Amino acid sequence: MFCTNCGNKMKKDDSFCTECGTKVNQNTEVKNVKIRVIREKKAMGFAIPFPVYIDGEKVGTLSNGAMVEVDTTLGHHLVEFVCADGNIKQDVDINKNHECVEIKFRACMGLVAASVKITSVEYK
Ligand SMILES: [Zn+2]
Q1: DSSP strand E in the chain: where?
Q2: Against a cut of 0.70, is the pTM above it?
C-alpha cells in the first residue's frame, strides 16, 4: 500500500502516512485503479516476449502488440521490464490526473525495439 498523497510505502494497518501525515481512508473507492501496460508493435521490433513486474510482482509477459492489466492503488509504482538489453525500471506516479507514460526500448544498434505505454487508469 502506498500513500495517495506522497507515494510513501506504508504498512497495511497504518492510519496515517508516516511521511506526510495524510489520513488513510480504507474505504475510498478511488484508491483502486487498473493500470494497463501495452507493448506496441513496431516494424523494427523484436518478437521476444519479456516479463513485466509491478512493485516486484510479476504481472504478465508481453509480446508485440500485447497488453497486461493489473489492479492496484493510486500512488507510486515501480514498473520493471526484463528484456534482452537488461532490466528497465521506471517509476510511475498513478494519480487522478494520470497521463500516459511511454517507455522506449533500444536495441544494440540504437534502434527502437519496442515501446511500452502505461495508460488507461480506470477507477472502479
Ligand atoms: Zn504520504
Answers
A1: 32-40, 50-54, 57-62, 67-73, 75-83, 86-94, 101-106, 112-123
A2: no
